[in-house]
Design brief:
Elements (H helix, E strand, L loop, with lengths): L1 E3 L5 E3 L53 H9 L11 H4 L16 H6 L11 H12 L3 H12 L6 E6 H10 L20 H4 L22 E6 L4 E2 L9 H4 L1 H16 L25 H10 L5 H16 L16
Helix pairs in contact: 1-4, 4-5, 4-9, 5-11, 9-10, 10-11
């Protein structure tokens, strides 16, 4: 997949694993400014406010507080279907001021200032908390997490050979910054108590295969339940790796900033629209979900991602028996 950082610099990444087969173009919905050739999120599978579910609020709405959302979530707790997430779910995140660079000031004064990772609960509780505090449809959030990681916070993907990637970047005058494990040759998951000492409630499972072979140089770049890219968002680490709530909080902040109209670099001369593309504007959840995963507005890769999210939405895969407490198998 193409993942793009908040400054609009693209980086090539491998397509995330365990994705469902692409669905159809989906029904309407997902915001205005649509183009008939571009799929939109399937509104027939959106959350229902009448059932107490969280739905998408209008662009630039006043966002609920962490505490108010926690009260709502804790009043209707969901059972855990990902026991492997227990330690990650019990670990808090951190504030992340001035996370955005290259977007409108609102992205930092409002969106970045709202990031905290300040919630613990079951995996579904955390996803719903994120949907609540960012004013986003909870079924869309659950579908994104299902597609990205099957709700596994320990999931990492998008490995790259660090020395080769750095050499290639250097050849064109760029510098790539990877996870603090400088070579990834220890064949362990960077982070946790292995590479970044810090107080945690219990040791997190860090000794997982990082690449292939006894001394692999492959370093994963996408981490956690919503597959945040370390290379693009190092300021969110280590909490985005160790805390499910932090991973969800940062990822959904990016979707909300796009939805509120803050990412005006989308479609500029350095990120041109495809022929016939619809100009970037606030209020288009479908396009912003596509942009989250692939980094661009109205491009073929984002179309593929929206189709995948529609497949998850239509099936509500997270409710199916095969999804429940499925043990993660590292690729």
């Amino acid at each position: 997949m193409w993942k793009k950082n908040i400054m609009g610099l693209a980086v090539l990444a491998a397509c995330a694993g365990l994705v469902v087969a692409c669905g159809g173009g989906g029904g309407g919905g997902g915001g205005g400014n649509q183009n008939n050739n571009y799929p939109t999120l399937n509104s027939a599978s959106f959350a229902d406010a009448a059932l107490g579910e969280f739905v998408t609020s209008a662009p630039n709405s006043v966002l609920p507080t962490d505490a108010s959302c926690a009260v709502k979530i804790n009043a209707a707790k969901k059972s855990e279907n990902r026991a492997d997430n227990a330690l990650y779910n019990a670990t808090l995140g951190k504030a992340l001021p001035n996370f955005f660079n290259g977007s409108l000031a609102h992205a930092n004064t409002v969106i970045s200032a709202h990031i905290s990772g300040n919630f613990t609960g079951t995996t579904e509780d955390i996803l719903r908390w994120g949907a609540c505090k960012w004013g986003l449809d909870e079924n869309v959030v659950k579908a994104m997490a299902a597609n990205e990681s099957q709700w596994q916070q320990a999931h990492r993907f998008n490995a790259t050979n660090l020395p080769a990637a750095q050499a290639a970047a250097s050849a064109v005058g760029n510098t790539l910054t990877y996870h603090p494990s400088t070579t990834c040759a220890t064949n362990t998951m960077p982070g946790g108590s292995v590479n970044i000492p810090r107080a945690l409630p219990a040791p997190l499972p860090v000794a997982q295969p990082q690449g292939t072979g006894a001394a692999s140089a492959n370093c994963s770049r996408d981490w956690g339940i919503l597959q945040l890219n370390y290379e693009q968002h190092p300021s969110a680490w280590p909490e985005a790796e160790d805390s499910t709530a932090m991973n969800v909080d940062v990822a959904l902040a990016m979707v909300r900033a796009c939805y509120d109209g803050d990412e005006t670099w989308l479609g500029d001369k350095n990120h041109p629209l495809p022929a016939g593309g619809t100009a970037y504007a606030a209020g288009n959840l479908s396009y912003c979900v596509g942009r989250y995963n692939y980094g661009l507005w109205y491009d073929a890769n984002a179309v593929t991602y929206i189709n995948r999210i529609n497949a998850e939405l239509t099936s509500k895969s997270w409710t199916l028996p095969a999804f429940q407490n499925k043990a993660w198998v590292y690729p």
